[in-house]
Amino acid sequence: MARKIPLDVLSAGVTDALAETAILREQCKSQEKEIKSLNDHKLESEIEIEFLRELREIFEKKMTEKDEWKESCRVSDESLIVAKQDIKTLEAKQESSQQRIKNLEEGVLSYRKQIEKLVIVLRNKTRKALVSSIAIKSAYKIVPSLKDQATIQRLHSLSEKATSPRWVEKDVDSVLKEAGVVLTNEANDSLRTPSLTPTEETTDDGETRRLKRRRHA
């Protein structure tokens, strides 16, 4: 008889996948908060720039008034220089914030596309593995020849050996490369995007048709 995969092993795999999904979602939420914070900072910078511009106009008007205001105008000129420097500083900060927001948005979009590809590949591979396992078990039950049964049982045994940690790790690396995900050893590098469920349109149509034929066979 074919050896069944223990339920606790399957449960552990599902638990690990759910935990990884939760981590990715939390990382995406953190990025969204950071983007919102940068947008808020940008708005504050624009308000400060407008305030300083209005202040500069007030100072310039005072410079055209009575002679006794000359000393005040001199002080206003000095304040205006400081204000202009503040404006340049705020404008530089605003430009930096805008570029950072753009980079973050591009990064989130890139990670989102990688995860979409990864989910599609993993779903297709899981579907293929399930269909293959069911087909082998079904063939073992219906073939009349003991020799054929022994051959099928041998195939099923070989398929179970393919789930060893070494082969699983190799297959995972292959799947990640197929999805366009690059792994590095740097501690700060990670996938930071929420887990996405692909729509029916993103599923491989050819694979879906093959599965339907196998089910009705």
Gist of the model:
This protein is mainly α and 217 residues long. It has one domain.
Describe the structure.
This protein is an all-alpha fold and 217 residues long. The protein has five helices and no strands. It has one domain (24-216). Residues 185-217 have low confidence and may be disordered. Keywords: Coiled coil. Residues 187-217 are annotated as: Disordered. Residues 187-196 have a biased composition (Polar residues). Residues 21-107 form a coiled coil.
* Main sheet overview: none
Coarse morphology = rod-shaped
Q: If helices are DSSP runs of H or I spanning 4 or more residues, what is the number of helices?
A: 5
Count of separate structural domains:
1
Instruction: State the low-pLDDT regions, or none.
Output: 185-217
* Rounded radius of gyration (Å): 32 Å
What is the string of SSEs from the N terminus onward? HHHHH
**Hey, roughly how much beta strand do the residues contain?**
under 5%
Helix fraction bin: over 70%
Distance between the termini: 23 Å
Set out the fold topology.
Elements: H1 7-63, H2 70-142, H3 146-161, H4 165-178, H5 205-216
Helix pairs in contact: 1-2, 2-3
Give descriptors for this structure.
coiled coil; 5 helices; single chain; 217 residues
